[in-house]
Amino acid sequence: MSDVRNLVERYLATWNERDADARRAAIDEVWAEDARYVDPLADAEGRAAIDATIGAVQEQFPGLVFRLAGEVDAHHDVARFTWELGPEGGEALVVGFDVAVLSGDGRIATVHGFLDKVPAA
């Protein structure tokens, strides 16, 4: 279980990495080559598209950070966890719930994201 938690923490770190080269290197380590990320607002297939999605989210929410909110629950090749996005040390503006499917080599193959709390338009 600690390996899965570590993978989830590394996954969230990719969402916080502002240096484009470092972020892409981290994505290549954490995500399977043919990975897919999908949530109500995005559908990204492949590492390059996932990288572009993360960059777009960072532009939309400058200065905010993703953090794990609670424990990671996992079995077999599936993990679920809640995350928050907000200012460092401050109240979350966005809260989500992700379900990650792991590949045979322990990387993330697919993330199904759900948004539980979003800012009012």
Automatic annotation (TrEMBL):
Keywords for the protein's UniProt record, in alphabetical order: Isomerase
Domain of life: Bacteria
Residue stretches making up the SnoaL-like domain: 8-109
Pfam family, one: SnoaL_2
One term of GO molecular function: isomerase activity
Coiled coil regions, renumbered to chain: none
UniProt-recorded name of the protein: Ketosteroid isomerase-like protein
Organism whose genome encodes this protein: Actinomadura viridis
